[in-house]
Write a structure and sequence with these properties.
The complex is a heterodimer of chains A (about 90) and B (about 240). With about 90 residues, chain A is mostly helical. Chain A is built from two helices and one strand; from the N terminus they run ααβ. In chain B, helix 5 packs across helix 7. Chain B has two domains: about 30 residues; about 200 residues, no CATH class. Chain B contains nine helices and seven strands; from the N terminus they run H-H-H-E-E-E-H-H-H-E-E-H-H-E-E-H. Classes of the chains: A mainly alpha (about 90), B alpha+beta (about 240). At the A-B interface, helix 1, helix 2 and strand 1 of A face helix 1, strand 2, strand 4 and strand 5 of B.
Chain lengths: ~90, ~240
Amino acid sequence: MRAWLSLASFLGGIVLLTSACATSEEWSEWRGHTTHFASGTHGMFSLRNNKDGSNPRVARTDVDAARAENWWGKAITVSPEQIFQN
Amino acid sequence: MSRYVLAARGGLLAALLLFGLLVNGMTSAVQVEAAPADALMPIEKYTTEKAKGLANTHRLRLIEFSEQIYNCMPWLAVYPGRLGFPRYKDSADDERYLSMWIWVDQREDPVFAALPQERRVSAMFSRYGVDMLRRMAALSDVVDDSDVAGLSVVLSWLKPGTTRPGQQAVNETFALFIDKATAADFLAKRVAAEEFVSRAKFNLFDGETLVGRVRLQVWEDSFNSTYKLSNYQPPKGAQCQ
């Protein structure tokens, strides 16, 4: 019985350790991850001004337009009343 | 009725339908995009004189603040009417927080999606929430107002995996409230992150569903204060630091 308990604890420990390692890998990967701006990846950004893509300029209105094109429809979001009182 | 009249009516109906779809699409697209002044909570929506006074006194300062976010951090958007001085939902008294609700424009990302929900919250708060608290705390004339009890930042982002065709997207929303003394001490590193978390009131929402208080970890992340969108030109006159 004691041997079974020891084996179970040992295996449980291994599972915990391996899952912790995987998580910290994902964690550190996210911390170094800095290229995730959705509208910023829009192709139009490299096409403005010159057709060959040189000297591109991105204005705030371009970001608005890219955001509008990339939009997924109205997302389900908590209502302000669930967070605040005015 | 002639064939031509029927065809014309059909064309008109199709045009109206298309127009309706376009208008609907445009309003959906701009749901979180507010011009800088529109980000401020309208004064008439406040329910107490104290809040109306704060909104009146600090209106211009908040417009400047909103302009800076709009012009200099295009990866963020302040929800219309969600920059102001609300109080916490369950607050029995009239404690007012300088608060802003921000949408983070983030694409589907496998690294982010692989994180458990509470880790996504920690990642977003560490990356954007702390920096926005720092920026709000820097509005010393507003924060030093004796009618301001604390700071609040609300962050929303698309829940990974919910932007597939035929599915309605879902936002995850994290709302945090902290008294201004603790906020100042945390930002000045006089209070550790764990203590900051234990003193803060916060909740996570999955879409419209309250998840509640999650295990929040906070660490240094300089992304929001250092990121530059390549080739981005802020509008003339905007001073971005």
